[in-house]
Amino acid sequence: MSTEERSPIRYYLDQIGKTPLLTLEEETALARRVLKGDEAARQKMIQSNLRLVVRIAKDYDNFGLSLMDLISEGNFGLIKAVERFDPDKGGKLSTYASWWIKQAIKRALASNGKTIRLPVHMVDRIAQMRRVTARLTVEIGREPHNDEIAMAMEIPLSKVVHMQSIANRAASLDQPVGLEGDATLGDLVKDESERTPFETLRGKSDNAEIGEMLAALEPREAEILTHRFGLNGESPLTLEEVGDLFKLTRERVRQLQQSALMQLRRIMTERQKLLTPEDVKKNRMAEARSEVLSEFFRSKGISAPPKGRPGREGL
Q1: One fold for both 120-188 and 197-299?
Q2: Which CATH class is domain 197-299?
Q3: pTM higher than 0.70, yes or no?
Q4: What is the pLDDT of residue 127?
């Protein structure tokens, strides 16, 4: 945070800090009124949750937008969450709103021309690292060492060092940041003209065919894949974010995801078996789609499902 920002941000924090937090009973009552169009209830719910936006925005600081800009964008996400939150479906507003706030902030970062365009999953991991660092600082009373951060996140120490090097905005695009020093920050900058594996897949298949394959899955599994891989045109979500949406643990989301991916592999295999010798061209296209789908899985850091019948693992 720059010196110039400290005064307005401090003033803003002082102002929003004057609004007391809502009890669960107050939140539920207000949310029901909001759904009926009560503007006063809407304003009170927004004001009472502005501190949540600040807490989340801090995790995405130093990616190209000022903290105040991040807070402003996050507030738009909070407003959407307040307007759509239904307390009778279970869960708390803070959990529901966190997803909307993060999405608003990440969209702003992606559209800002001055932002270093890192993959969404990397931005999320760095944000998670910052949250863990802040928590450990409070728990142990000092700045945690890198190995302590790695242990808390259950990842190798080298990955912590890797993420810290990327998060350092003072680094130039030519500075080595790879785990072996063989990549640069410039290598991680997103090329807007580059087609993603899924975009390539869509270029080889029509939307109806993709929709048919997803429709063959259980509705929840299809929704999980849609959110995890951004098949609806939105940014892909992390396992944690999908878990928040469906009220599932991170591990359960991973299990359902793997099961769905294995079913997709089986569906594509069965479709290829139905092709006749006269459909040579279509067969080649099907093989290309299968290869692109495998590449898509790999690009997301997921092992491609094995060919053949899916087992019961992960169910």
Answers
A1: yes
A2: mainly alpha
A3: no
A4: 81
